[in-house]
Amino acid sequence: MQAPTIIIALLILSSVSYYLGRKRAFAVAQGHIRKLHSLPLYYGLYTAIWAGVPALLLLAFWFMFEDTMITHLVVADLPAHIADQGADRLNLVINDIKNMVNGNIVSSQINPAMQAAADHYKQLQSTSHILVAIIALCLAVGSGSLMLTKIKAKQRARNAVESFLTVVLILCSSIAILTTIGILLSVLFESIRFFRAVPITEFIFGLEWSPQTAIRADQVGSSGAFGAVPLFAGTLLISFIAMLVAVPIGLMSAIFLSEYAGPKVRATAKPLLEILAGIPTVVYGFFAALSVAPFIRDTGGLLGLDVASESALAAGLVMGIMIIPFVSSLSDDVINAVPQSLRDGAYGLGATQSETIRRVIFPAALPGIVGGILLAVSRAIGETMIVVMAAGLAANLTANPLEAVTTVTVQIVTLLTGDQEFDSPKTLAAFALGLMLFTVTLVLNVIALHVVRKYREQYE
Amino acid sequence: MNNMSSQTEIDEAEIRSRRTIEIVNQGLKRRRAAEKRFRFYGKLAISMGMLFLVVLFASIVSKGYTAFLQTYVKLDVYIDEQKIDPQGTRESETLSRANYGALVKSTLRGMFPDVKSRRDKKDLYALVSNGADFEIRKRVMENPALIGQTLSLWVPADDDVDMLLKGHINREGAESERRLKDNQLRWIDQMWEQGRMEKRFNTTFFTAGDSRDPELAGIWGAVSGSFLTLIVTLLLSFPIGVAAAVYLEEFAPKNHLTDIIEVNINNLAAVPSIVFGLLGLAMFINLFGLPRSAPLVGGLVLSLMTLPTIIIASRAALKSVPPSIREAALGVGASPQQAMMYHVLPLAMPGILTGTIIGMAQALGETAPLLMIGMVAFIVDIPGNVFDPSTVLPVQIFLWADSPERAFVERTSAAIMVLLTFLIAMNAIAVVLRKRFERRW
């Protein structure tokens, strides 16, 4: 029996118990529903929860440990000459056995011992599935019918169901925390393994980045240097160009839309501008790589400049376009939050509209705008697809926007796509970069959100 | 005396104020110019934004619209029994293994009898896509009675021919710099004049999976992958997101834990998407052993990403339901949860659905985290369930954008147009939903 079948069976059992529970409640009330503590529906739900949830939990628990247990049993029964090969070889053998069980392609040739192990595995697996199906269904029927017999008019079924629901709601809201912890743990563990191989100081301060470690000892030119400074510099350069595009245009658009534009212009221009935010980044990447980069290269060629076809300028420019609506909508919110009385005061003193904006509204909105810009910077640093498609792969330490640079996100993608082994520093380096990225953007976000929130409170 | 002095004071004040007015008047011109300039900058910024939007769309549409047409060649193929089923068994195994390429080749030789040399023959064969063999096989397998007859059918031309007829290959340049040789150009022109070549609507593009040959490549595999991934995302993130929003907005006590959760959600909304990909790789694939490249894992990662969007939107929707609704429900004896389930939640539903659709649109366009979990593989088959290896539309765009063939550029743009159509449709639904059902209290 497969897991989905068991789950479907349990769900059916659970809904059957719902109807039985409801019916039982009617029976207990003997036609006077007023005698019941809760609505009949709650008695049904109560029975259904008891029938379904414990069995489902058991199932989840079982399947979580089933694989480990069976592997353990199979390994214990392996012939000694296979079992005593050391952990690495043994892992390979176990993988092969599992592949044989699943009918996949096996890397080494099949020998009778392994075939036997695979059969053993299969047999254990089916036994385990039958066992868990029986236990789960018995549990469901047992606890369901037990609860069914216990239904009484005075029973507080609603309260029980509601406290169960509350627990579910709390669990759902804690997923946010679990996600953060999950991210932190997954990047942290691999990073620690990486920093065992490469000292953290070399990673943060090293000027050389060439992650191709030698596979064979006699290979040339692949020493494997993990100095991330060129990546940080490249990321900052591209983000800086992006901000040079996005901040003036975004900010001026926001000012124009909130202070000058009539309701009609605002109603059309604002959603149009926000379309830019809804376009997938892969589309921007394509645009940058196939339209903007060649255009910049050719224009540079006409002016006698030597522009790389994967220039930082192209990636930064397009990233800036992507961020315009982000800056403009955040600034728009902030500018609209400045109280009208400040504007009226300035007008009363005879200031023109632009003077009011520059001398009164802008300073008043500045903290919020800075918060918005920080969020935009964190967005630019973490942006992946545009740079993967339009920026280079080679780590250049340069401040020239016409040259090709690489970024943290580009390197993460390059290191982790394709075949990978999980103990080479090359793969682990991606997680260390991920940790840096997560930390930097987290700090930026926390500061920015704090500033924006503080600012909002100020005028509320 | 006193009167006098007061008179002079008034005069002085008048002179002073006149001076002030003069100063103000002197400055007015400059200030009005500054005002105009500032307003102009604002207009300039808006128009720049609009310009970028127009340029982006124009560049993609102009590159991509040609992909909806594809050049087809008309072949009159004699289905030679000697070549495909010499024994005359008509067994499906024999038929499926037969060499249909030979039929195509002999047909082409028949069309151009003057082609003799080996190299020329090879050039001639290159004009027709490999897909021709599959097409003939499909027809013969469906109807074995065709064997021994002449079958007249349209097969896709090779991508280079297609590019030539769409004007992407320069005929005038030197032969060595072209993908097509002079004699190939001659044959193509000949076939075009005979009416044996035609541009038709490219159904392959919408029905096929990925392929190394541009003329056989389609987006259906990626679209199905995207669909499966989004289903998983929706099934996970919608209930969890709404439950979390309900708890945080309606039931959560104001304490440290709730504060932490709130800060966390806001932060998660701003974490770079690629970090979620790292989480998916380390947790779901390496730790839990879920299959790589599967829509299931993609959906898991994307639902973690869209959760903050849905939670924030749902909370806003719940907040906008006036307290009087709750109070009325509580007043007639409903429990807080009943008031929530039967009164507040239904009223907040349009707002929640709008937020969910916007979150789904984001998930549909997301690429980076899916690269991490291996959805970037070259996959020809159309995925049938959430465990099959598959790719999604944005990743397909990324893969095609990397391909060197000129014909993939227009297909990439066309795939982008399809993706943008989906996104615009989803956003339009969200807008309509909001306009139609949103209640102002």
- List the uncertain runs of chain B: none
Specify the CATH homologous superfamily of the largest domain in chain A.
MetI-like
Structural class of chain B: mainly alpha
Morphology of chain A: flat
CATH architecture of the largest domain in chain B: Orthogonal Bundle
- Our count of helices of chain A gives 16
Q: Write down the Rg of chain B.
A: 34 Å
* Pattern of helices and strands of chain B: HEHHHHHEHHEHHHHHHHHHH
How far is it from the N-terminal to the C-terminal residue of chain B, by CA?
71 Å
Give the SSE map.
The complex is a heterodimer of chains A (460) and B (441).
Chain A: H1 3-29, H2 40-77, H3 80-83, H4 87-102, H5 112-150, H6 157-197, H7 200-205, E1 209-210, E2 225-226, H8 229-260, H9 263-278, H10 281-302, H11 312-337, H12 340-348, H13 353-382, H14 385-390, H15 408-416, H16 425-458
Antiparallel strand pairs in A: 1-2
Helix pairs in contact in A: 1-2, 1-5, 2-5, 2-6, 4-5, 6-16, 8-11, 8-13, 9-11, 10-11, 11-13, 12-13, 13-16, 15-16
Chain B: H1 2-64, E1 69-78, H2 81-84, H3 92-97, H4 100-111, H5 118-125, H6 131-142, E2 150-156, H7 159-165, H8 182-193, E3 197-201, H9 203-207, H10 220-251, H11 256-268, H12 273-287, H13 295-319, H14 323-331, H15 336-365, H16 368-372, H17 393-402, H18 406-437
Antiparallel strand pairs in B: 1-2, 1-3
Helix pairs in contact in B: 1-18, 4-6, 10-13, 10-15, 10-17, 12-13, 13-15, 14-15, 15-18, 17-18
